[in-house]
Here is the input.
Amino acid sequence: MKNNEINNFGLTGLSNSRLSVTSVTQNEKISVVFDRITVVGYLIEGRERQLKNYVERDPRINLRDTGFDKFKAHALDNKVYVEYDRRLAKQLNRSEIRVEFNPSKLSDEEKDFIQFVFLDNMRGKEFSRIDLAFDLPINLADFYIMSDKSLKKTIFYGRNDKPETKYFGVRDSERYIRIYNKKLQLSEVDKKEIEDEYLWRIEFELKRSMTQKWDKCFDDLQIIKPKWKTVENQQKRAMVYMLLNELDEWSNLQRRTKYRYKKLLNEISDEDISDVLRETLNNNHEKLRAELENYIAISHHDKLYNFDLG
Here is the structure.
């Protein structure tokens, strides 16, 4: 289809070549990290007393709600949260201990501390939550996530009536997606200025079985920028606008109609960043996989030796 031709949707034709992120910004500026990790499991038999004795005297650990067979603690200036309750775990048939942390905000020394004090004293370890985050120097305010699955969308707007945060999915589901203006967040919350004109984050919050598919968590998604105003037919343009802003309306469409409008959204979108996210993930896959494997590896020390309490 050539430019300015009209198709059967009343659409002003776009160029056949779809822009990737590389045509918008430099690929090397796109980063991917784990933004939050939750590891659950059980204490290795015989470690409870040793661990409790240790957390009670290490100044880097703020212990609270402690008991004979339980404790809650924050460590490393609230960068880590640990909760242990052996009795409740038996009653509810769940894991005894939970360790939550954000590896992207921890130094290597702090990661070693978490590993040695907590994770290496656990058995039967698994992930109950993994947050995979991509930072992009692109304005994602007008980007839209399209999936074969039903996704609820919630948008929060800023003072200039521009989208600042978008949520796709339901908070308690196995996959919850956030897109937000990270440059604005860093400026307002952390008082940190970024040189790039834009810095946005796409964050995949993965729970339960989706933690095992962390590297395939967006295989069913397209992250596109539909230019709905290019649809010349007023009725269809209004329909596209409604579907972009009221995701629940997709469920009211017949299968064939749904397919036609998804095809139309693709046709009016000249930018799709999902492939570039996959490329970025693939380039960093080995490092990320090794990081996860290390967190749940079998303990490599036999007992809790004393740390340097500094």
User: Anything to note?
Assistant: DSSP finds eight helices and 13 strands in the chain.
